[in-house]
Amino acid sequence: MLKKSLWSSFATDPEKYPKLNKDIAVDVAIIGGGITGITTAQALTERGYTVAVLEARSVGHGTTGHSTGNLYIIIDELLSSLKSKYDKDVVIRVIESRKAALEKIEENVEKFGIDCDFSRQPLFLYEDVNNMKILEEIKAAKEINLAFTELSEDFPFEQDNGIRFDHQAQFNPLLYVLGLAASLDKEKCSIYENTAVRSVEEQKDRVLVNTSEAIVAAKYAVHATHTPKGLELQYHTTLGSYREYGVAAKLESTSYPQGIFWGYYNEQKYSIRSYSRGDENYLIAVGSPHKVGQAENNQKHVEDLVAFIQEQFIVGQITHTWGGQNYKPADLLPFIGRKTKNSREFIATGFSTDGLIYGALSANIIADKIEDKFNRFEDLYEAARHQPTKSAKKFVKENVNVAGEFLKDLSFKGDDKDLMEIPPGEAAIITRNGEKVAVYREPNGEYKIVSALCTHMACMVHWNNVEESWDCPCHGSRFDTSGEVIEGPAYNALPKKIIE
């Protein structure tokens, strides 16, 4: 079984981009090379701006390459959740904005001939017991005149209630982003991989983006990193960082029903779809969400997902497992636009699990703002907004959770272990000379030892035994076993430590 996303198995010969090793100047520096960053680069270069995309690892292989590849106009939290916080007009405009983004993705696929298996598909919502969720969704859809059909008895999966939304879509998200990146005007856009940003300094008439080896001077900077980098507490305190898992299993034929299936089994949501490329046919299931760094045993989440897919469907070998991260906004809408009222920095965050659509939508809103052009959806997602009546309950819940994790770890003394007691392939937090250190013992017996305190806000990291990473339970930063940042708001690596 491969511990990587299914999509990465089909990106066998991606274009390689250089590492930035000299100072440059451009109109816009974009931090992050996923669907948000690459689509923003496309939108800006088409308007004549020069752009540098700075990707810490490989283009498309972050959150985008670990998503479901589903494209839909409703939201992950469902229409009924939106309707509980906003009036009818806002809900309709959210749907319209997401529809426009889906159409932009389809336009790009056709315009640039991107081979990413894009196809229009229906979205099915169903539940195995009558817990009223689908009935609430039917009511919300009727109130905004969104077309749907109720499921008939010949629906292929057992269900108590269900509805269908037609003309949604699916694709291979990694192949899409790689294809879009390859199509960009190379005279106006430079892409750099393995180029981690260490800090961003906003000045009166420019922004300096500092990487490990160079400085990018730009008129504007865009944080296309799924969550803003640095100590942007006005955003981090309104976002909950969550992780969930995906598994792929071989299918014996292409006769499996086509479409996006959101099933609620005992009130647990699973996202299910099939995928075929060439002679390879797969079933994909995504679920088992939990707060980043707060799972007692990450492996158990994957095992539960594998058990679910094997119990519910006739599948062959489990071929891939992977994890994906999302940031849920307290008021259900993402933050897209200027960091503050007159800032030269732009952010796009709080996408929940709807990042493919919101990534494409962000690109157009941000490009319009940089061009000083009105965008009809900008007010919906204004990054500097403050909506206490719509976010208070979840805001309090998330921050109590963060405070609880911080206080709990303050009292944790570290495992009372010698290095030799840590089995090969496993990890532990231990205390040496009054300092907590994170120790990973490689299968060959060698040790990787780093500080156990996250470089974002000094919360203690926790071991993720599925993805072999150190995950911060406070704001979702993740680090590899060498301490390098994988994702999240942290700029800097966990410092390496030596134990005598």
Automatic annotation (TrEMBL):
Assigned keywords, A-Z: 2Fe-2S, Disulfide bond, Iron, Iron-sulfur, Metal-binding, Oxidoreductase
Pfam families xref list: DAO, Rieske
Gene Ontology terms for molecular function: oxidoreductase activity
Nucleotide-binding as UniProt keyword: no
Enzyme Commission number(s) from the entry: 1.-.-.-
Domain Rieske, chain residue ranges per copy: 414-500
Enzyme class: oxidoreductase
Chain coiled-coil ranges: none
Domain of life: Bacteria
TM annotation in the entry: none
InterPro entries membership: FAD-dep_OxRdtase (IPR006076), FAD/NAD-bd_sf (IPR036188), Rieske_2Fe-2S (IPR017941), Rieske_2Fe-2S_sf (IPR036922), Rieske_Fe-S_prot_C (IPR005805), YhfW_C (IPR038010)
The protein's name in its UniProt record: FAD-dependent oxidoreductase
